[in-house]
Amino acid sequence: MNRIVWITGGSSGIGAALVKKYSDSGYYVIATARSKGQLEKVASSSNYPENIKIFPADLEKVHELSKIIQSVWNIFDGIDLVILNAGIGQWGEVKDTEMSVERKIFELNFWSPVQSIKLLIPKMENKGSGKIICVGSIASQFGQAKLAAYSASKSALTLYLESLKEELRYSKVKVKLVSPGNIKTSIMKSALTHNGKKLNKVGQAQEKGMTTQKLAKKIFKFEKQEKFHKFFTGIEGLAVLLHKFSPKLFYYIYRNLSRRKK
Ligand SMILES: NC(=O)c1ccc[n+]([C@@H]2O[C@H](COP(=O)([O-])OP(=O)(O)OC[C@H]3O[C@@H](n4cnc5c(N)ncnc54)[C@H](OP(=O)(O)O)[C@@H]3O)[C@@H](O)[C@H]2O)c1
After folding, report:
1. pLDDT tens-digit readout, 75-89
2. What pLDDT is recorded for position 262?
3. Is 242 in the pocket of ligand 1 (CB under 6 A)?
4. Which residue in 78, 93, 152, 247 has a CA-CA distance of 20 to 30 Å to 120?
5. Ligand 1: distance of its center to the CA of 85 in Å?
6. CA–CA separation, 240 vs 222, rounded Å?
């Protein structure tokens, strides 16, 4: 019997690559994002479109998640693996950014996975097994200008999951966390600016980043391992260590690099 995976944010970037990787590997995939057209494109351009069901939904509407998750669960009468990947970027200084924008970022990047996890765990425990992987970010590890709410949302998600992992020590349901560095996607195009409008720019760091196909392969492999958390980065991964052991040096280098980019 094919295993069943639900992938959120499956219409582009990392999520689209995961949809292809899992369907290529014999899984039945349910892909969710808001854009039905984009989900259809991802499914039809994959090698096994017959293995992919699309389920368009707005996951920022946390109060609707109960209905959404029940419907997704019913498609194959159960889910073995969930990859909560849908997320939104940010580009704006705290002093200019409207509170509603910061709330919106938290709604999708933090509250939506939290509510989804709460709804999925009892169902998976009842079924006897299940795995939930969240896509965090290297940005959870240190503060950067114009990314305050984004970094905070990923940081909150990181510690939430680390705590939950302890609670689930003796459960048949497991949670895992992946923290990518710079990945070549158009996340900065849809990133929210101070007033909630899309940034609509190509992210320079992302352009030089790891391809989504490479990351999808790594996540696929990691999912089968015992480990709870893994970073998937290029050279920028060194920033995590540097920030941990010498925050002063970290911000000296960070400021110099930021100045050069201007
Ligand atoms: N790219 C990087 O460098 C990087 C690094 C670290 C972590 N990440 C994380 O990786 C994840 C995927 O990002 P990405 O880089 O692949 O960016 P992306 O290409 O912009 O993908 C974001 C996905 O989330 C979906 N989405 C956005 N708002 C949604 C909503 N309200 N309801 C349902 N789906 C929604 C988007 O589809 P629709 O617009 O159709 O809804 C899209 O499929 C995010 O959690 C991001 O924070 C990315």
Report:
1. 999 999 999 999 999
2. 63
3. no
4. 152
5. 6
6. 20
Query: Contact at 8 Å (CB) between 123 and 132?
Result: no
Reference 3, options 116, 127, 118; nearest CA is 127
Cα 86 to ligand 1 centroid, rounded to whole Å: 4
Per-position DSSP letters for 10-31, written without gaps between them: TTSHHHHHHHHHHHHTT-EEEE
Q: Which residues contact 68 (CB under 8 A, 6 or more apart)?
A: 32, 55, 57, 59
Residue nearest to atom 34 of ligand 1 (CA): 33
DSSP code, position 128: T
Every domain of the chain and the residues it spans: 4-235
4-235: what fold?
Rossmann fold (3.40.50)
pLDDT attached to residue 227: 98
109 Cα: distance to centroid of ligand 1 (angstroms): 9
Cβ of residue 179 lying under 6 Å from some atom of ligand 1: no
* Residue found by looking up tokens 């069943």 in the block: 4
β 229-232/81-84 pair status: unpaired
Whole-number pLDDT of residue 260: 76
Low-confidence residues in the chain, pLDDT < 70: 262
13 close to ligand 1 (CB < 6 Angstrom): yes
173 lines ligand 1 (CB under 6 A): no
Q: Name the residue of 6, 34, 106 whose CB sits within 8 Å of the most ligand 1 atoms, as the mutation to test its pocket.
A: 34
Three-state DSSP state, 66: helix
Cβ 57 vs Cβ 115: under 8 Å: no
Sorted by sequence, the CB contacts under 8 Å of residue 96 that are 6+ apart come out as: 194
Q: Which atom of ligand 1 is nearest to the CA of 182?
A: 3
pTM equals 0.98
